[in-house]
Design brief:
The complex is a heterotrimer. The radius of gyration of chain A is 23 Å and the shape is globular. The termini of chain A are close together. Chain A is 67% helix and 0% strand. The longest helix of chain A is centred in the middle third of the chain and has 35 residues. By secondary structure, chain A is mostly helical. In chain A, helix 3 runs parallel beside helix 6, helix 9 packs parallel to helix 11 and helix 10 packs antiparallel against helix 13. Chain A has one domain: Cytochrome C Oxidase, Chain A (Up-down Bundle). By secondary structure, chain B is an all-alpha fold. In chain B, a hairpin with a 3-residue loop joins strand 1 and strand 2. The longest helix of chain B has 37 residues. Chain C starts with 9 loop residues before the first helix and ends in a 13-residue tail after the last helix. Chain C is built from three helices and no strands. Classes of the chains: A mainly alpha, B mainly alpha, C mainly alpha. Chains B and C meet through helix 1, helix 3 and helix 6 of B and helix 1, helix 2 and helix 3 of C.
Amino acid sequence: MAITEQDVQASEDAPSVNYLNNGYGLKSWLLTKDHKRIAVLYIISISIFFALGGLFASLVRFELMTPEGDLMSSDTYNKVFSMHGIIMVFFFLVPSIPATIGNFLVPIMVGAKDLAFPRINLLSWYVYVVAGILGTIAVVGGGVDTGWTFYTPYSSTYSNSNVILAAMAAFMAGFSSILTGLNFVVTIHTMRAPGMTWFRLPLFVWSHYATSIIMLLGTPVIAITLVLLMLERGFGFGFFDPNLGGDPVLFQHLFWFYSHPAVYIMILPSMGVMSEMVAAVARKRVFGYEFVAFSSVAIAILGFLVWGHHMFVSSQSTYAGMVFSIITFLVAVPSAIKTFNWTATLYKGSIVYDTSMFYVYGYLGLFLVGGLTGLFLSSMGLDIHLHDTYFVVAHFHYIMVGGQVMGYLGGMHFWWPKITGKMFPDICGKISALLVFLGFNFTFFPQFILGYMGMPRRYHVYPEEFQILNVASSLGASLLALGYLVPGVYLTWSIFKGPKAPDNPWGAKGLEWETTSPPPTFNFEETPVVTEEAYQYGQIEEH
Amino acid sequence: MADHALHHDHPHGLAHQFEDMPQQKESAVIGMWSFLITEILFFGGFFATYLIYRSYYPEAFFEGSSHLDIPMGAFNTIVLIVSSLTMAMAVHKSHEGNKRGILVYLTLTGILGLTFLVVKYFEYSAKIEYGLVPGLAWHPHGENSPQLALFYSLYFGMTGMHALHMIIGIGLLIWVFVKAAQGTYTAEYNAPVEIFGLYWHFVDIVWIFLFPLLYLLGTQGGGH
Amino acid sequence: MADDHHGPTVRIYLAVFASLMFLTALTVWVAFQDLGMFNDVVALGIACTKATIVILFFMHVKYASRLTWLLAGAGILFLLILFAFAMADYVSRGWLGMPASHYLQ
């Protein structure tokens, strides 16, 4: 680890009052308007939902160890995978990086004292908590069995489970995410420090800006879709009811208008995390900064034009399908730009083999596989074979878990000293990154093969010849679970027993590393003035 | 805004996270516009549904529309346009820091908003009486009856969601009114009045589209 | 941003109000004229005109920063994307001569 005397000196000179110790007691947390404390509240609450969603995932993998349905009935299995999906998507993946690391870092990175609307930020957390409670009631009170997609007419007419409650929970979680996105857009537009021009912003901020655009433009459409579903189910109104001449496929159109871009809500923030980490571990400015910045915005916009690729085998017209298919292929361009540019950043960099580096390598590998298999699925002909098989399941887990969760964990490690003011043992970080990478591949790579061989998703009884791969996948899942538990242990340990973190433990560039660890309540002693572009690593001396 | 008591050197109404009043006001306006974007797309889901079913079932939609009360709809349109004018005037007065002006025009706006809701109440009552509420009180039996239910689902969904926004708007109006009565708003600090105005005008715009799409459709008797 | 020194005057507000009332009367009147398919076009055209007037003057966008224009424009653009791509499906369902849908028509 690269800690210089200067760093130690700086942290000893730092004012002792910071955002963590300027007030104690429950009230100082629950009524806080400090974006850093709200970020910590979010970290705690999304961790709870991650654990809950993970519990349902392990039940799924447990059931799939054998070809027969011996652990649970078909109805129970339907509920278990639905609740895994709903909890993971709406309560973990969508808020994960933006509401936690993003909430903590966006104001600091632009050099502001706080987000533009601190009270709205706190409100968003409360809305999220209420949504989470509603979701939990839906789960405890019998569960929901529609899949996370709530497709009509099953959800509106036939399902006997808590659809309205779960839809209401998703609706409110969406509202919380709108409030976060709104805060980011306004903060990035109006609160940048003197000298912080758009092209001096860290790429983390660019990717959060792109994410916020999607949150603002997409989330209201899922909100109205869920309202229509609730009206139809609750009051007997007809919007998608075939008996009235309504079209269930219209529900899918409206649903995916948000839910496809939502995939980019999940992946874009982790791309921002990776850009910061790649530059820090390679000690180089991110190669092609402008291209990486604009590719985030391009992904956000193109993401709205591709939703029909989820509906190739619905009664969607073939012509519309062709258009959606072609535009879907185009999304690969900005994604590839990012991957190539990160790789080019590593080239001839002075690479530091610490925890961050392990997470960066892991992310690059998993995102590459996830992204390329997306191209298989965007070809209409091949999708007819692969649609609703485990190939799809494996593909989106490579993006959402391999990409997003890897980015989330990597980012948590990278900024942990800043958030808590404590260091974690580097060797533990490396072990956890390795466990996650190996466990992930053991879990999900077999599912590509299973899906290609024709195993459909959402069934718990399957032919015997699929058992070996399913058992492999379940064993991999145990390893993956271990990979997620280990950081929970040593990161928690570090809060109490870890050595004190210097202001800039990684020798990284960026405004967040210029303030103290943890930062003071208003982030900086005085408003910083920015005089250079991001990632000027050439000026840092080699340690 | 709740923090201003802590910072006596700051101008009245300046929250701690902002450097100066123009930055705070710009943030408020941009924040409201960002919120209105979400509102555009929220109602957009309804309008897309309307567009698609309308193009598939024109006859049923004409028939459904012909049962709506054009005079009441037109009256409510006028009520909302007048309320937009009074709201714009309230914002204008807030720029002058004219407390009495703000209060007068906000009162007028609130009364007009309530008028709209009262008219809407009578319209809904009539529809319930005639059995034109899908799922709850539905009497039509004709050939077009199922598709007619689609139209009325959309009618109640869209106008109901609009009315809900009116009710929220009146709630916000009362809050702005109380703050104004306390003398919170000055020529320098008036962003809440301004962004509430944006919200109110937006709700008006939604109605500007709902009126022709729902009410005026049936006047030609499905002649095309 | 909206600045009271460059914002609209009361006279402008009254003129805007008068034109909105005129357009409301016009749209009701036109609805009772038989223009064939143009009834819809005219009604929507008038509604869009009214909405534009409200946005530009009552909502001060005419006097606002480019960012406000961008935000208002982005909302409308993505609304049109929703309409266009969803309609693209419904319009082209019958083109291959296969049953368009089990449910529709």
